[in-house]
C-alpha cells in the first residue's frame, strides 16, 4: 500500500514578515508545488494570499493559483474552504467557484487558540451539497472526535460525496482540538463511519513527527507542510516545504509504503481527470 502525501504549504495563520520562507506569492506557490511534487506529494492543500501576503478568498487570486498549479504540475489541487478564522461563511462557500479538484470541509466548530473556527452544521451541509453538484471531491477535516459524528450525519443525510469516495484528514494538536497523540488519533480512526475509504493525519507543531509515525504504522496517509509546522527539528526552521515532503517520503518508503503517484491518488480519491 502506498502513501498519499499532501502538502499544505502556506495556511492562513503564519505572517510572511515572521516566516519569509512561507510561499505566499503566485511564483513561490508554483515553485513550491513543482518541488513538492518532485519530492513525493500528490495533493496540495492551498490557502491563497493577496499582494500584501494576507489571506484572501478573492476569486481572482484563487482561480489564478488553481490555473497556474494545474498548468505546471499534475498535483490534485485542494482549495481550503476553512480560510482564516476571520472569513465569513458565505465567502467560504464561494471558494468552489475557482474550480478546484478538491476542497477541504471541516466537520465542526473548533476553538482555535484564542479564536473560534466556525463550522455550523448548516454551513457544512451547504458546502457538502454544493461540492457534490460541482463535482469537487471534499476532504473531511476532523479536528475533534465530535467531528467524526458530524461526518456520519452528513453522509447519512446527503449520500456519498462526488466520486463515491470518503477521504478524511485528522488535523491534530490545534490548541482547542484533539491532542496530537497516538491514543487520540486511534480513538478517531476507531470511530470512523464505514463509508470512509481512507484517512490521513497531520500533527500541528511538535506533534508533526509523532503523528506521522502513528499514521504510517496504522495504515493512514500523511499531510505535511508549513501550514501545520514551521520547524523541521528543534532549533531548525523549515526552509522549504519540500524538506517536509522529502522526509515524509523517506519515512514512508522505509515503512514499505512509498509515495502514491498523482494518477493513483486521483483514482484513490475519486477526483475527476
Ligand atoms: N485556517 C484555519 C482556520 C481548512 O483549511 O479547511 C482553517 C483551516 C482548515 O486551515
Ligand atoms: Zn488549511
Automatic annotation (TrEMBL):
The keyword Zinc applies. The lineage of its organism: Bacteria, Bacillati, Actinomycetota, Actinomycetes, Micrococcales. InterPro entries: Aldolase_TIM, BKACE. It comes from the Bacteria. This is 3-keto-5-aminohexanoate cleavage protein. Its cofactor is Zn(2+). Keywords: Metal-binding, Transferase, Zinc. Pfam families: BKACE (PF05853). It comes from Nostocoides veronense. The keyword Transferase applies.
Amino acid at each position: 500500500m502506498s502513501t498519499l502525501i499532501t502538502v499544505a504549504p502556506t495556511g492562513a495563520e503564519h505572517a510572511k514578515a515572521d516566516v519569509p520562507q512561507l510561499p505566499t506569492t503566485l511564483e513561490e506557490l508554483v515553485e513550491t508545488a513543482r518541488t513538492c511534487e518532485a519530492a513525493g506529494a500528490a495533493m496540495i492543500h492551498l490557502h491563497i494570499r493577496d499582494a500584501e501576503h494576507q489571506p484572501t478568498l478573492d476569486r481572482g487570486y484563487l482561480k489564478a493559483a488553481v490555473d497556474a498549479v494545474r498548468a505546471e504540475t499534475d498535483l490534485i489541487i485542494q482549495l481550503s474552504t476553512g480560510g482564516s478564522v476571520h472569513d465569513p461563511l458565505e465567502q467560504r462557500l464561494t471558494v468552489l467557484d475557482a474550480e478546484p479538484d478538491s476542497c477541504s470541509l471541516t466537520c465542526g466548530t473548533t476553538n482555535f487558540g484564542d479564536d473560534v473556527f466556525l463550522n455550523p452544521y448548516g454551513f457544512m451541509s451547504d458546502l457538502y451539497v454544493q461540492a457534490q453538484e460541482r463535482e469537487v471531491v471534499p476532504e473531511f477535516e476532523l479536528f475533534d472526535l465530535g467531528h467524526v459524528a458530524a461526518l456520519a450525519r452528513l453522509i447519512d443525510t446527503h449520500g456519498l460525496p462526488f466520486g463515491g469516495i470518503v477521504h478524511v484528514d485528522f488535523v491534530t494538536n490545534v490548541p482547542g482540538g484533539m491532542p496530537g497523540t497516538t491514543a487520540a488519533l486511534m480513538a478517531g480512526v476507531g470511530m470512523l463511519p464505514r463509508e470512509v475509504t481512507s484517512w490521513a493525519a497531520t500533527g500541528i507543531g511538535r506533534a508533526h513527527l509523532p503523528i506521522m509515525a502513528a499514521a504510517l504504522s496504522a495504515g493512514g496517509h500523511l499531510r505535511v507542510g508549513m501550514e501545520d509546522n514551521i520547524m523541521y527539528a528543534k532549533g531548525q526552521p523549515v526552509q522549504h516545504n519540500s524538506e517536509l515532503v522529502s522526509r515524509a517520503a523517506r519515512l514512508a518508503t522505509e515503512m514499505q509504503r512509498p509515495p502514491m503517484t498523482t494518477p493513483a491518488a486521483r483514482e484513490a480519491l475519486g477526483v475527476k481527470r
